[in-house]
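Researcher: Go.
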Amino acid sequence: DESNFSALYWSSCRGYPDICKVLIHYGCNVNLKYRCGFTSLHTAADRGHVDCVKVLINAKADVNIQNDRGETALHLSCYRGFVDIVRILISANINPFLKNSNNKTALQEAHSQQYNHIADILVRYQ
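Model: Structure:
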C-alpha cells in the first residue's frame, strides 16, 4: 500500500494466519523490515496474534531480529503480557539476553509491567 507495508505485514497485524500462510507460500519475505524496523513477527507479537506468530516462526522468521529500538518480539510480548507468545518464542530458541535501546532485556520489560508470571517463565528459561 502507500505506506509501504506488505500484505503479510497487514495480515500479521490484523491476525489472519491463513492469509499469512498463503502469502508466505507465494514468496513474501518474513524478515522484511518496515517502519521503525518492525517485521511481521514483531507486529504479530505486539498485537497478541498467537497463530500468526506460529505461522511466521514455522516459515523461518528470525526470532532474534531487533527493531530500531532494539526490541525483539520477546520484548514486545513481555511488555504486553502475552504469555502464550512468550512461550512460543522461547520454544523457538529466542535469545532472552538481547537488550533494547533502553538497555532492558525482555525479563526487565516483564518486571516493569508487573507480569511476574512471565518473569518466572523467563527466569526458568535462562
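Model: Residues 56 and 99 are 22 Å apart (CA to CA).
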